[in-house]
Write a structure and sequence with these properties.
4 strands; four-stranded antiparallel sheet
Length: 155
Amino acid sequence: MTTANLSAPIPPPRRSSAHRPLRAFAIAALGGASLVAAGCQTTAQQISRKEDSLVAAGFTRLPANTPAREAQLATLPPNRFMPKTDGDTTNYIYADPVVCHCLYVGSQTAYGTYMRTLQTQRQLDQAQLTALTYQNAWNWDRWDWGPWGGGWWWR
């Protein structure tokens, strides 16, 4: 080898433009499928799923079957948590005037459990979306490994 060959810049890897439209289509299709799947749930289904998680976290379901409970349900913002402090204890109230016409009441522990569950579910959803998006994004077959198995950086 001559010194001229040693000082020559290493060319960047060749990128095939044939995979770009396919990759763009796959990402667009996945995004569209996610939007369609999210759009298939009605508001009542989303609230019902949330209420199942509330009960699993330790909230108590109180139906608005008395005039006092109906009055309290009417004063609370729908489908939102409202903290209620009584001395040293804080309880959280979740009003649902749409699906079950009830209140969910839970302690700080139940609220914390629900929020951790919600955060874990969001992380799992994000991880699943990332895995689906990138499962075929890295194709080792496009690389020229050469006779020794190394990539372009080994030359």
